[in-house]
Amino acid sequence: MIELSYKPSFLRDLKKCSPALREEVKEKISLFQENPFHASLKTHKLKGTLKGRWSFSINYRDRIVFRFEGKSAVVLLAIGNHSIYQ
Predict the structure, then answer these.
(1) Which of 16, 32, 73, 77 sits at a 20 to 30 Å CA gap from 43?
(2) Which InterPro entries does this one have (predicted)?
């Protein structure tokens, strides 16, 4: 199982999300902890200025950006739509 830590800005952004989206996030994070490369998450490496970071999908619009800290630890960095990539 993946060990998670959260950047404070991630937690602030999560609080701004609707209750329905927060529930989706909770479900996807749980799935991510069990299998970070589950097909429904669409986990992928990021490029350019976000090189070294990864992203997975919450739904069609929203994403979570993270980075691996070793083989079994992850820091969740940002949550939002595609604008978080800028």
Answers:
(1) 16
(2) RelE/ParE_toxin, RelE/ParE_toxin_dom_sf
